[in-house]
Write a structure and sequence with these properties.
alpha/beta; 6 helices; 5 strands; 30% helix; 19% strand; globular
């Protein structure tokens, strides 16, 4: 609806990729929720890993913007507040990832949609996997619809089966 982030952002972070590779090895897989231009997905895929990105807006896909042109088979659009399944092409089973990232996305989700977002993470995260991300505290942004303090976010994470570390 308001694709500002997907039009502007395409972050690649080699340091993050490298740390994930150190933790999970060469067979690591990653899922980036709210992937914007797909830069982080590109970083993982470039280094030979299964990497998938999901974005709520189809603007970058339609424009062929950023990495949507270079790795179209790795990037998808969907509403992460609704049930979805990413399935293994070889056996049709839901794919589970070592790393699921969600950078600067939570605050854009209405509080009523957060429980399903967490269910989607649980459905796609390996038992020994890591779910990592960030939440913007900027209150003046009209696209930030869920604005909570650290205690509020910690409670939402706890209620949905996750521990939140503030740092």
């Amino acid at each position: 609806i308001n694709p500002f982030g997907t039009i502007q952002d395409n972050t690649r972070n080699y340091a993050f990729y490298n740390k994930c590779r150190q933790l999970f090895g060469s067979d690591m897989s990653s899922l980036d929720l709210g992937c914007s231009g797909g830069g982080l997905v590109f970083e993982f895929a470039l280094n030979g890993h299964l990497a998938i990105g999901v974005e709520g807006s189809d603007r970058s896909r339609r424009m062929g913007r950023a990495n949507w042109r270079t790795i179209p088979d790795n990037l998808f659009t969907c509403d992460i507040t609704k049930p979805f399944a990413l399935k293994d092409k070889n056996n049709g089973q839901p794919h589970r990832f070592d790393v699921i990232s969600c950078w600067e996305v939570f605050e854009h989700i209405p509080e009523s949609g957060l429980a399903q977002l967490f269910e989607n993470v649980k459905a796609h995260l390996k038992d020994d996997g890591v779910f990592i991300g960030s939440i913007s505290k900027i209150t003046e942004d009209p696209l930030h619809v869920t604005l909570l303090d650290n205690d509020g976010w910690t409670e939402i994470f706890r209620r949905n089966g996750f521990a939140m570390t503030v740092g």
